[in-house]
Amino acid sequence: MASALRISSLASRMAVRSAARPSLLAAPVRAFSQSAVARENHPQSLFRFTEDEQMLQESVRKFANEVVKPRTFNMDETEHLDQVVWDGMFENGLMGIETPEELGGAGMSFTAAILAVEELSRIDASVSVACDVHNTLVNTLLRQHGSDYLKEKYLTRLATDTVGSFGLTEAGSGSDAFALATTATKKGDKYIINGGKMWITNSGEAGIFLVFANVDPSKGYKGITCFLVEKEWGVTIAKKEKKLGIKCSSTCELNFEDIEVPAENIVGEIGKGYKYAIEILNEGRVGIAAQMIGIAQGSLDLALPYMAQRKQFGTAILDFQGIEHQVAQVATELEAARLLTYNAARLKEEGAPFVKEAAMAKLYASQIAEKAASKAIEWVGGVGFTRDFGLEKFYRDAKIGAIYEGTSNIQLQTIAKIIKKDYR
Predict the structure, then answer these.
(1) Over 90: is that where the pLDDT of 390 sits?
(2) Per-residue confidence (pLDDT) for residue 5, from 0 to 100
(3) Which pairing describes strands 164-167 and 208-214: parallel, antiparallel, or unpaired?
(4) pLDDT tens digits, residue range 396-412?
(5) Does residue 25 contact residue 44 with C-beta atoms inside 8 Å?
(6) What is the pLDDT of residues 128-151, one digit of tens each?
(7) In angstroms, rounded to a whole number, what is the distance separating the alpha carbons of residues 162 and 170?
(8) Distances from the Cα of 285 to the Cαs of 56, 68, 136, 345, in angstroms?
(9) Is residue 27 over pLDDT 90?
(10) Which of 99, 109, 123, 378 has the fewest CB atoms within 10 Å, counting from its CB?
(11) What is the 3-state secondary structure (H, E, C) of the chain?
């Protein structure tokens, strides 16, 4: 692992390379086919990545194939994410992709994080969601709303050696996330947290938790506040769920009993937790969309080579016209999902509205992930139904896309609400 590319050093290398040769964004355009405005602004395709984004994509693909892939089957069977994989993600800078370099991170773009999630998911969606939640939820919320004290104290740990977890969901607050019952009572310069969470990703390995608790239940959701809580302060990891898919990603219940948290560990402002959660989940949905397109692509990557070799009636399965048309349809829908995802990521980076686009990307990508995995199993036949081949894992992993970080019905509601505003 020591010889693996260290992603956190990419930014400095990119600066040297950029000075030595023209930027990719400076590629010539055919003037006669562009308007004056287009020629001036040099619009690019959604597949035009910066050099450091390309290097990250290539490095993560290499890591996923060389380190994750040999362990995927066993991790799924044992429902445990291998420590070698965790260590590799930290060593390669994948746990602090957007975190500034001075705090131990890679200092890259949101799109870079999305590309990393997609590449990991082509091999193992459990690993990708562990990376995704850590980056797009935990790191981003702390980076955007944490005090300088919290950033300096915790972002370096999160980038280099400590797993983070996002504690929002409770037994009585799923899609209605703000019906949560966990409380935080002020006592001097501390808050006493009591309650519990469930379905919390990364909770089995996390050392740092972002916990949403209500400091004044009489105010309803306007009392919800985000606290940064260290595991050693008394967080109890309770039941670990046994799941249909993403099995080696730990999903556990958390219990908080009279946990004392310093007031300085409030992330952002008191009572603004509901606002932060809504904002950050929009970013998280782009990450889940990336996970889903990775699953879809991984399904094709596994199925198509087999179909090109396997013959029936003297013809390769891939060469039957009925199969060709199905493959073409799935590939087209996957490309559409990928473009929706990349577009939402770029809009977010630009500071433009992207809530509708994030919801569309997650909704559609989750649909095509299920479709691609299901069709791939049908295409390869009986072997696809066996656990050894690997397609059934993609199929199981795909289902969660329609559920977490906002169900498909919630995404439809969000999309419709925004569309209606344009016509009223």
Answers:
(1) yes
(2) 44
(3) parallel
(4) 999 999 999 999 999 99
(5) yes
(6) 999 999 999 999 999 999 999 999
(7) 24
(8) 21, 24, 9, 10
(9) no
(10) 378
(11) CCCCCCHHHHHHHHHHHHHHCCCHHHCCCCHHHCCHHHHHHCCCCCCCCCHHHHHHHHHHHHHHHHHHHHHHHHHHHHCCCCHHHHHHHHHCCCCCCCCCHHHCCCCCCHHHHHHHHHHHHCCCHHHHHHHHHHHHHHHHHHHHHCCHHHHHHHHHHHHHCCCEEEECCECCECCCHHHCCCEEEEECCEEEEEEEEEEEECCCCCCEEEEEEECCHHHHHHHEEEEEEEHHHCCEEEEECCCCCCCCCCEEEEEEEEEEEEHHHEECCCCCHHHHHHHHHHHHHHHHHHHHHHHHHHHHHHHHHHHHHCEECCEEHHHCHHHHHHHHHHHHHHHHHHHHHHHHHHHHHHCCCCHHHHHHHHHHHHHHHHHHHHHHHHHHHHHHHCCCCCHHHHHHHHHHHHCCCCCHHHHHHHHHHHHHHCCC
**pLDDT (mean) for 366-384:** 98
Tokens of 279: 């904002």
Q: What percent of the chain has pLDDT over 70?
A: 89
Question: Which class in CATH covers the domain with range 164-271?
Answer: mainly beta
pLDDT of residue 10: 52
Residue 343 clears pLDDT 70, i.e. is over it: yes
Tokens of 292: 């889903």
The architecture (CATH level 2) of 7-20+46-160 comes to: Orthogonal Bundle (1.10)
Q: Span 322-326, mean pLDDT?
A: 98
Annotated domain spans of the chain = 7-20+46-160, 164-271, 276-421
Pairing of the two strands 190-201 and 164-167:
unpaired
Could you name the CATH architecture of 276-421?
Up-down Bundle (1.20)
What the block records as the tokens of 44 is 């690019």
The one catalytic residue in 79, 357, 370, 405 is: 405
| Dist CA 3 CA 334 (whole Å) | 34
pLDDT of residue 177: 64
